[in-house]
Amino acid sequence: MGEGVSVGRPSGALRKILVPLALAQFICSFAGSNMNVMITDISKDLGTTVQGVQIAITLFLLVMAALMIPGGKLTDRWGRKRCFTIGLVIYGIGALMSAASPGLGVLILGNSIFEGVGTALLIPPVYILTTLLFSDITSRARAFGIITGMGGVGAAAGPLIGGLITTAISWRAAFVFQALVIAVIVWLSRDIVDPVEPDPTRPFDTLGAVLSAAGLILVVMGVLSADNNLALMAVLLTVGAIFLALFFLHIRARERRHAEPLLSTALFRNRTSNLGLVTQNVQWLLLMGTAFVVSAYLQVVRGYNAIQTGVIFTAATGGILASSLAAERLAKRYAQRTLVTAGFVTTIAGVVVLLALVKGSPSAWAFAPGLLLIGLGVGVMLTPSVNVVQSAFPEEQQGEISGLSRCISNLGSSLGTAVAGTILVSTLTKRSYAAAMIVLAIIGLVGLGAALFLPTQRPQRALAA
After folding, report:
1. pLDDT digit string (tens) for 94-121?
2. Which sign does the torsion angle of CA 16, 118, 173, 372 carry?
3. pLDDT tens profile 43-62
4. Cβ(386)–Cβ(406) under 8 Å?
């Protein structure tokens, strides 16, 4: 294995490598939320509807989720650095296609498909390389804190940056911005060396990849169709569940034949990891669901423009940034279960505040306290949730668990936009806004329940000692 870290702070070379990895997570998370403030501008320019833009956003997040596990497996076959670079190039092409799109179809092709596929290829290497290069708990926790923190900041800052660019120039310029950032990441990552040699002979479970992707896509599309066709929703959910059941039967059959499956069933037998995956899913569901609901409500019902909507989200951005910057100190003082639990309590409180304060207030700033609490809560629990999952498995399984972890997180993001967004766009009134926020709060309680069952572990400073 390549250069690692034994104790304490990472070397200058590793800190330099961490920059493009963190920036890659930032831009991918940014892409998942910046379109929220462009809903009105895109729908008018491309002659589509709010639901059309919602579908584009959800599909981007869904393609990431559906292909993240195959993307993680391909890192073993193609190499982590090569997958990272190929993903960046595909993503950049998609961003430029989106910037030039004449209609919703090309926007979906560029943003939802190309950027989604690119993200699925480049994100697993980010977490695998971090796990392999930062070998002790303290330095790895610090690295994960920076990367997940940048992801949270990207998701929360997306509306502000997207709003500024859209108002000052055009919504198309926001995609040009993404392409420019991708070019910078490609340049910064030129010195990254894969710590483990790729194995081109490694088998790849193509049928497993197709079954898993089809199942996830059908389930989320079923949720999206709930607002106008309940029969279609039932069919899509049923067929999606069948595909997922076939996927699990398929990988079990491959294991019995001693053939390598797309995903080892052993990953689901780790209780701690399973609980951590639930918390990851719900965290991103809450963050992205809230972002879409509040953004759509402000623009369509309140009539705010992109920059006004983006400025309001600075409260969430500030909350995530503050808690992410404190992640290392918090990890040294508190157990991971404590941090994740506290994060859910704070986030759910933020959702409740959004519901209570906004109900009768005409002021846009009534959204700030709730968004701040959500930002603080999500920022506190992002890093410990990732660290719980990644650290539960040895190096040889990092490709699989990284892909599964990112899949579950992005599935949460797509479900958040699909579930809460579908409830909202059904009527786009105060009542539908309230219903969407209530659903998010209930789902947050599920995440809190999973966090309470995480094992109690000593703070990382004690573990490092």
Report:
1. 999 999 999 999 999 999 999 999 998 9
2. negative
3. 989 988 888 888 888 888 88
4. no
Average pLDDT over residues 13-21: 84
SS (H, E, C) the chain: CCCCCCCCCCCHHHHHHHHHHHHHHHHHHHHHHHHHHHHHHHHHHHCCCHHHHHHHHHHHHHHHHHHHHHHHHHHHHHCHHHHHHHHHHHHHHHHHHHHCCCCHHHHHHHHHHHHHHHHHHHHHHHHHHHHHHCCCHHHHHHHHHHHHHHHHHHHHHHHHHHHHHHHHCCHHHHHHHHHHHHHHHHHHHHHCCCCCCCCCCCCCCHHHHHHHHHHHHHHHHHHHHHHCCHHHHHHHHHHHHHHHHHHHHHHHHHHHCCCCCCCCHHHHHCHHHHHHHHHHHHHHHHHHHHHHHHHHHHHHHCCCCHHHHHHHCHHHHHHHHHHHHCHHHHHHHCCHHHHHHHHHHHHHHHHHHHHHHHCCCCCHHHHHHHHHHHHHHHHHHHHHHHHHHHCCCCHHHHHHHHHHHHHHHHHHHHHHHHHHHHHHHCCCCHHHHHHHHHHHHHHHHHHHHHHHCCCCCCCHHHHHC
- CA–CA separation, 388 and 386 (whole Å): 5
> Rounded to 5 degrees, what angle do the CA atoms 65, 30, 44 make?
95
pTM of the model: 0.79
> 30-34, 41-45, 284-288, 444-448: which has the minimum mean pLDDT?
30-34
Main-chain phi, psi angles of 194, to 5 degrees:
-65, 120
Residue with tokens 């990895």: 21
**Residue 182: CB partners within 8 Å, gap ≥ 6?**
27, 88, 91, 92, 95
Query: Would you give the distance in Å from CA 126 to the centre of its chain?
Result: 13
Q: What is the dihedral of CA 224, 449, 140, 21, to 10 degrees?
A: 10
Amino acid identity, residue 144?
Answer: F
Rounded Cα gap, residues 137 and 141, in angstroms: 6
The tens digit of pLDDT for each residue in 159-199 reads 888 888 988 999 999 999 999 999 999 999 888 888 888 88
Tally of CB atoms within 10 A around 47? 11
The CA-atom distances, in angstroms, between 268 and each of 57, 248, 389 are 29, 11, 11
**Mean pLDDT value across residues 430-458:** 87
pLDDT tens digit sequence for 266-295: 888 888 889 999 999 999 899 888 888 888
465 band by pLDDT with thresholds 50, 70 and 90: very low
Which residue's structure tokens are 């997570």?
Answer: 25
